[in-house]
Design a protein that fits this description.
mainly beta; Autotransporte_beta_dom_sf; Lipocalin; Pertactin_central; 41-stranded mixed sheet; Outer membrane autotransporter barrel domain-containing protein; signal; Autotransporter_pectin_lyase_C
Length: 814
């Protein structure tokens, strides 16, 4: 009978003398077992009487659907398929393979114990009143360790789910490991490795996983570093922590814990990790969401790393260092050891308060959202940001040394003078931006407000976007001595006020752009081969056609750059369509034409810092034109009414959004007088003078951030002097083609339109002199009753530039 020392069922805690005697009995061998010869192979099939077995070196026992009692494997191999056995002890390089099998132990020994051996367990069940599984090394001078790969199996033990010592490794795949007794842990690691994956579960009545000292026999002997890896799996301690480090770790051998890919830790006492005095742990959370505290006892140490969108909600107590990067989120307070370090990087967010933390770095898009007031020895910024907290409370950040380049997001109540405050007590270097929350409410006093104190250093502080929007005006940053102040600037309207000025000033350009398409139509009507007829066509076509009814449609688009009185500007883009009908009036000594039209246009405004506005315009109008064929004189008159739906979305200086919308009415009219002069070969010129007037209803409204706008009526008086030159060409097939070019000078006379923002008046002066150049082309077929026409142009002015404008139309005469 082999008398080698077998695997004990517990290794990790001090034991009584009675326990040692029991251990001695366990290691004497099973004298009642059936023993194979070395190298022998035995196969047991269903129906055989259960026996206890001893498998010596090179021997193989196959259990195929059979039952067995206790089995000892000494450098042999056990293969169990659909079998049921009592406890299995394997040692000295033995191999155990279990598939669809059950191991039940009714004693306090392990269901399966491995000593310098290996096991593969698939879709099986291990149950014991002791441990379900132990993996150990022999304590002789050369330690080998044990290994087990467990797939889709269930392991339960009264004293504990499993235990793994130095140089041993456990691979748990899609399996459940549980310690069910009142004092049981799910897994105990004493220098061993555990890789837990594929939705595996480790559950303990006290702790889910407990890291322990390696050997009760030789505590000073060399031990390995414990390492737990969870991959899409969970660890739960029902009454204790999810993970506990329960011994003084050797120097340089902090236990390693990796929580990966959707894994979870659940502590019945609210603790994810507990570290005792003298112990050290490194916890890395990668792409997983955890909730619970990390509690390190005085004299212990721990470092915490969150990576790849990890999320941890809980307090970190007495930790040495915290690293949060790769868009991870830490929500909770961090209590350091006095020399604690926090590093935020690559879009990470930390929301909480700090104490006992000496140094912090906030880099590459990371952000610290402070809770309460905080103090640091050193703060280094590299494209990171610090938010002082919510707008409901004002906080203070005390920093001895500030360096790098970063952004501070602050709130200030200019009505009360309360504010977040940055206090640098020793020195500040680098370049830093302050983003102070904007508001539409008006300050009570308009006095400067101190938001920071910089004791020394060459740091540069600026405001994001150069200002803070406060009510109707902007505030600028001023540095005086050591102080940083917000100073009101009565020369600079706030972004909300600028947007209101833009909306109010846009309506006249919308009106005139809609009317321009109609004026062009009236010219087209004179220049067709139908009466009323332009002299140019009369010279070419003396067929004496009678006046006719007309139906027409025109689409148009315009793009403007607009400057205002406050050095700001915006871009304006308009598109629309007009439809009209007209008929001749055979009265007087000339030719009269009366018509009606309607249409729709949409104008989009691209305003400062991403603000935007839009005006939807619906309009109806009528026109009357007179043309004397003998002299070439003409008079065109137009009257129009518009309904505007105005919408504005404002991006404030701090990036917050506010909006408003309102409706109003506009009326307009224009009169154009000119003469059509024809030369030989179809050439012509057409000088003209035009006067246009418009008035748009004033309207009061408020942005949803509290900025109140009062619009006076917007008025416009426009004069235009122009000259068109062109030629009417009769093609070989009798159709007509008319290219033309027009130059004009336009002047807006009204310069005193006004709006009011929170009771402060602003002049909305859009008076401008513009020079415009337009080219057009008409085509009328010889035998048809229709024509098409197109036009494109541009203009430059002191206030308004038209980058480009164009229209395309078609008309029918019947």
């Amino acid at each position: 009978m082999n008398n080698e020392i077998k695997n004990p069922s517990r290794f990790y805690k001090p034991v009584s003398m009675a326990s040692c005697l029991s251990l001695l009995i366990l290691t004497t061998g099973n004298v009642c077992a059936r023993s194979l010869d070395p190298g022998e192979t035995e196969t047991v099939t269903p129906g055989s009487a259960p026996e206890a077995w001893y498998i010596p070196p090179a021997a193989v026992l196959n259990l195929n659907g059979a039952d067995a009692l206790e089995i000892e494997v000494g450098r042999g191999t056990l293969n169990a398929q659909s079998a049921t056995t009592a406890q299995i002890d394997a040692f000295s390089g033995a191999t155990v393979n279990l598939t669809d099998s059950t191991v039940v132990n009714t004693t306090t020994n392990a269901a399966l114990s491995l000593l310098d051996s290996r096991a593969t367990i698939t879709t099986s069940s291990l149950n014991s009143q002791g441990y379900a599984l132990t993996l150990a090394r022999d304590l002789r001078p050369v330690s080998i360790g044990s290994s087990a790969t467990i797939t889709n199996s269930t392991l339960t033990g009264e004293l504990g789910g499993g235990a793994v010592t130095s140089f041993s490794s456990l691979n748990l795949i899609g399996s459940r490991l549980e310690g069910t007794g009142i004092l049981a842990n799910g897994l105990e690691l004493a220098g061993g490795h555990a890789n837990v994956s594929a939705a595996s579960q480790i559950v303990g009545s006290i702790h889910g996983v407990e890291f322990q000292e390696d050997s009760m026999f030789a505590p000073t002997e060399l031990t390995a570093q414990s390492h737990l890896t969870l991959d899409n799996s969970s660890v739960q301690g029902r009454t204790g922590a999810a993970i506990s480090v329960d011994f003084a770790t050797p120097a340089g051998q902090a236990v390693l814990i990796d929580v990966l890919n959707g894994s979870s830790l659940i502590g019945g006492n609210g603790h994810l990790l507990e570290v005792v005095d003298g112990a050290a742990a490194r916890l890395q959370v990668d792409n997983s969401k955890l909730a619970g505290d990390i509690d390190v006892a005085a004299g212990g140490s721990a470092s915490v790393q969150l990576r790849n969108s990890a999320n941890l909600v809980g307090n970190l107590i007495n930790v040495d260092s915290v690293t949060v990067d790769s868009k991870s989120l830490l929500t909770g307070n961090v209590q350091g050891t006095g020399a604690g370090v926090i590093a935020l990087d690559q879009g990470a967010v930390f929301q909480g308060a700090v104490s006992g933390v000496s140094d912090m770095s906030v880099n590459r898009g990371a952000q610290w959202n402070m809770v309460g007031s905080n103090a640091l020895t050193s703060l280094n910024m590299d494209a990171g940001s610090v938010r002082f907290g919510s707008s409901e409370a004002f906080n203070r950040l005390d920093v001895a040394r500030l360096s790098g380049n970063g952004q501070f997001l602050m709130d200030t109540d200019l009505a009360t003078g309360q504010t977040d405050f940055l206090n640098v007590t020793e020195s500040a270097t680098g370049s830093h931006q302050l983003l102070v929350a904007a508001t539409g409410s008006e300050p009570v006093t308009g006095a400067p407000v101190m938001i920071g104190n910089i004791a020394a250093g060459d740091a540069v502080f600026t405001l994001q976007n150069g200002q803070v929007d406060v009510g109707a005006y902007a505030y600028k940053l001023m540095r005086e001595g050591e102080g940083l102040f917000l100073q009101p600037d009565k020369e600079t309207p706030s972004t909300g006020t600028q947007s209101a000025l833009a909306i109010a000033g846009t309506a006249p350009t919308v009106i005139y752009a809609e009317m321009t398409t109609l004026n062009t139509r009236l010219g087209d009507r004179r220049m067709t081969g139908n009466q009323p007829t332009a002299q140019s066509f009369d010279a070419l076509d003396a067929d004496g056609k009678k006046s006719s009814y007309g139906l027409w449609m025109r689409t148009y688009g315009n793009s403007y750059n607009v400057k205002n009185s406050y050095g700001d500007g915006y871009k304006q883009n308009q598109t629309g369509v007009s439809i009209g009908v007209d008929a001749p009036l055979p009265i007087g000594d000339g030719q009269w034409l009366i018509g009606a039209f309607g249409g729709y246009s949409k104008t989009d405004l691209n305003l400062k810092r991403g603000s935007a506005g839009s005006i939807d315009s619906v309009y109806l109008g009528s026109y009357l034109t007179w043309f004397d064929q003998q002299t070439g004189y003409y008079v065109d008159t137009v009257a129009k009414i518009n309904r505007f739906n105005n919408d504005v979305k404002v991006s404030m200086s701090d990036g917050t959004q506010t909006k408003a919308d309102f409706d109003n009415i506009g009326v307009s009219a224009s009169v154009e007088v000119g003469k059509h002069i024809v030369f030989n070969r179809g050439y012509f010129i057409e000088p003209s003078v035009q006067v246009g007037a418009a008035i748009v209803e004033g309207k009061d409204y408020a942005l949803d951030n509290g900025l109140e706008i009062t619009n006076d009526e917007t008025r416009s008086l426009l004069g235009n002097v122009g000259l068109a030159v062109g030629r009417e060409i009769v093609l070989d097939d009798g159709s007509k083609l008319q290219p033309r070019l027009r130059a004009a000078v336009t002047h807006e006379f009204i310069n005193n339109n006004r709006i009011s923002a929170n009771g402060s008046d602003f002049k909305n002066d859009l008076s401008s002199t513009n020079v415009a150049l337009t080219g057009g082309l008409n085509y009328a077929p010889a035998a048809g009753n229709w024509q098409i026409y197109a036009e494109v142009g541009t203009s430059r002015g002191t206030t308004v530039d038209q980058e480009i404008g164009g229209n395309l139309g078609v008309s029918f005469n019947f």
